[in-house]
Amino acid sequence: MANTTSVKPAKAAKAPAKKTARQPLVKPPHGKPVLLSGGNPQIPKGDGDAPVQAYIAAMPDWKRDLGRQLDALIVRTVPDVRKAVKWNSPFYGVQGQGWFLSFHCFTRYVKVAFFKGSSLRPLPPGESKDPNTRYLDIYEADEIDEERVGDWIRQAAALPGWVP
Predict the structure, then answer these.
(1) Mean local confidence (pLDDT), 43-69
(2) Is 110 within the bounds of a domain?
(3) Diameter of the chain measured on Cα atoms
(4) Residue 122 DSSP symbol
(5) Cβ(149)–Cβ(134) under 8 Å?
(6) pLDDT digits (tens, 9 = 90+) for 74-85
(7) What are phi and psi of 86, to 5 degrees?
(8) CA Rg, the chain, in Å?
């Protein structure tokens, strides 16, 4: 006997939406920086200090002062640090070794990522899905232990970094 089970024809696949080149904005016409979800500044990617300073200047409220403090601590600790903004976050690295640190704004805190943080002693407190990465979350009421964080920065800069 013939198989009488009917099969519905497959729906025609929709054509993928046409992608348009989106120009990230540092400042919209009203002069305020564009903030993404969680208050993270939208800054065009770029190499060097200028994009990092633009990111820090666009950080909202208390996070701006924290960004300046972190940037200054990193530069004091690693004077020839390489800087860039990638994926709407400042990245810090050593030429020829890759990136060792990044930070990112969230609604209530700033997350500092040590890409080879599992090799640092003592370990930074926050775990990651990536077994190599460790995090330090800094909230408004927190004071940075510059000695401890500076030591992590020094250790991280001495290790082979993350290369995307």
Answers:
(1) 96
(2) yes
(3) 83
(4) S
(5) no
(6) 999 999 999 999
(7) -140, 140
(8) 21
